[in-house]
Amino acid sequence: MRGISIRAVALALGIALASLASARAQQQQENIPQENSDAVARKLASILIERQTGAAVPADRYWAYEADFNLDGFSELYVYVADPACDGVKCGLFVFVLEGDSYREVLGDIPGARLTDPAKVGFGAFKRNGFIDFQLDQVLASWTGDHYADSSTFPATSLDGIAFLAACQKSKSSEQPEEGEAEQVAGECQCQFNRFQAIGLSQASLDTYTASMGENFAYPSGEKEKAWLALLKDAEDVGTGCGVISGKSQWQPAYFKHGDQPQQKLDSEAFLDACPAQDFILTNRKTGSPDRALGLCGCIARELPTQGVTQTGLDLLTQYYRNEISDADIEAQDADILTFHDQASEACLSQFPAK
Q: Which residues form the signal peptide (predicted)?
C-alpha cells in the first residue's frame, strides 16, 4: 500500500487546535494563578523582546504567556507585540525557547510567521522531534530539533503499510468487538500510518515496529537499543497525536511538584530584577549563564505563590537577593520564607532543562 495521502492528517490538525489567543480572551474573571504566571511571562518577555528588537517595547503593546511546547515541565514564552504597521521583524509573534545557555527566538525562519493573526494560532495534534506542532493560520510549523520550520519542507516517505495496518488492527481489536469498533480501530491505525509517512519514517523502521507487535519479537539490545528506544518514542508520540485527533487522549505535561497553597496575587517584578544577578543563582551548576539564571528565576517567581508566599514575603526575598539583609534578618521577620523559597527552587531545578 504505497503513496497513501498524508493530507488527511494535516486537515485533521485544524480540528484539534487549541487557540492560545482564544484562551486569552476567555479569561474574563479573575484567575490569580494565571495572572501570576502571566506577570512573570511579561517580565521575561520584556527583556527578551528588547534584546531581539533592539528597543524597549511599551507595556501596553505586548502580551506574553508561558506555554510548554515540549511538555518537559519548563515553560517556553509565547509573545505578541502589537503594531498596526507591523513589518514582521520587530513586532508580531515570537516564541522564545531556552536552549543551551541562551534563550533563542524560534519562529523567525518561517516567512510571514510573525504576521500571523493571533486568533489563528494554536497547537497542533502531533509532536515532532519532541515539540508540539504549531499552527500559524494555514502554515503548520514543526520542530527541526533547533527551531520551528514549515512542515511542508520536511522530507516524507512513501511506505508499504499492508503488514503494519494488519498488525495494528489485530493488536487493537477485541476478541468480541462492539458495533463500530472495527471501523474506529482501522481509522486509528490508518492515522498512525499516515503520520509515520509524514515524519519520514524509513521502511526498515516501520517493519521493525510492526514486528514488535507480533509474538517472539527479539528486542534490540547493545548498540541497537538506542535507535529502538527512539523509534518507540516516535511511535508513542504518533499514537498520542492520533488520539488527540479522535478525542480519546491529550498531551500530558511532565510532572512538576507545585506547592498546594492558595495563591495571592503578587508583584514579582522587583524580585525578577534582583534574582538573575545573585551569585548563588548564576553559579548554580544547572545555570551558569545569564539567560539560564533568568529562566530559573522566572520559574521560582511563578512557584513561590504556590508555596503560600505573600507579597510581604516576596519583598523580603527581594531584599535578600539584593544582599540587603542576611539569613538571620529574614528568618527573624518570617521564619518560614526561606523554607518556602527552597521548596520552590528545588521544584524548578528538578525540571530545569539540561545545557
A: 1-23
What's the burial of 84, exposed, middle or buried (CB within 10 Å: 0-12/13-18/19+)? exposed
Cα–Cα distances in angstroms (integers) from residue 317 to residues 38, 281, 350, in the given order: 20, 13, 21
Long-range CB contacts (within 8 A, 24+) of 143-152: 143/69, 143/70, 146/99, 146/106, 147/104, 147/106, 147/107, 147/108, 147/109, 148/95, 148/106, 148/107, 148/109, 148/110, 148/113, 149/109, 149/110, 150/110, 151/10, 151/198
What count of other Cβ atoms lies within 10 Å of the Cβ of residue 182? 14
Task: Label the pairing between strands 62-67 and 92-99.
Answer: unpaired
**314: β partners:** none
Residue 342, classified by CB atoms within 10 Å of its CB into exposed (0-12), middle (13-18) or buried (19+), is exposed
Sign of the dihedral defined by the CA atoms of residues 323, 328, 329, 330, in that order: positive
Strands 131-136 and 139-143: antiparallel
Domain boundaries, the chain: 7-153, 162-246, 269-350
Which three cell numbers mark 232? 518507540
pLDDT at 181: 84
Q: In the chain, which residues have pLDDT < 50?
A: 1-28
pLDDT digits (tens, 9 = 90+) for 243-261: 999 999 999 888 788 899 9
